[in-house]
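**User:** My hope is that you can spare some time for a protein that puzzles me. I have put the entry right below:
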Amino acid sequence: MGFLNDLRKDKMLAMKEKDRLKASVISNIMNGVLLMEKEAKREIQKDEGMKIVKSELKQAKDTLESLPSDHADLIEETKKRIEIIESYLPKQLSEDELKNIIEKIIEDNSLDKSPKSKGLIMKNLMAEHGASVDGKLANKVIDSLING
């Protein structure tokens, strides 16, 4: 069974529980997966579906950052959306874990600690740990390591 079937089951459960927010979030993810499947002309596996989930998470976090502080209800709803989305992702690596992994990548590949190496570092990091990496945090850690 594919990732889409898991999402369908979760959506049905959310609808039975009358959790409209969760059903809505799952629908958004499902739509992304369906579009990806249509473009690929095949069933999408869970690891591929994580790209959609990460994209939804990024959008929700961007929305949260852009909300005015006097809209407490919208802020709370967006935080709940983020929680729901994160439940579909594997545990995200912490800043310290990322730092250790990135230092190992630099060492193993004999890379210079310079901005020129940033693309290679990111490529290796995402290839090995893609779904567990927050891109913004990874960029921040890489920048701190290569810029001293």
About this structure: The mean pLDDT is 90. DSSP finds seven helices and no strands in the chain. The radius of gyration is 18 Å. Residues 95-146 form a domain with the Arc Repressor Mutant, subunit A fold (CATH 1.10.10).
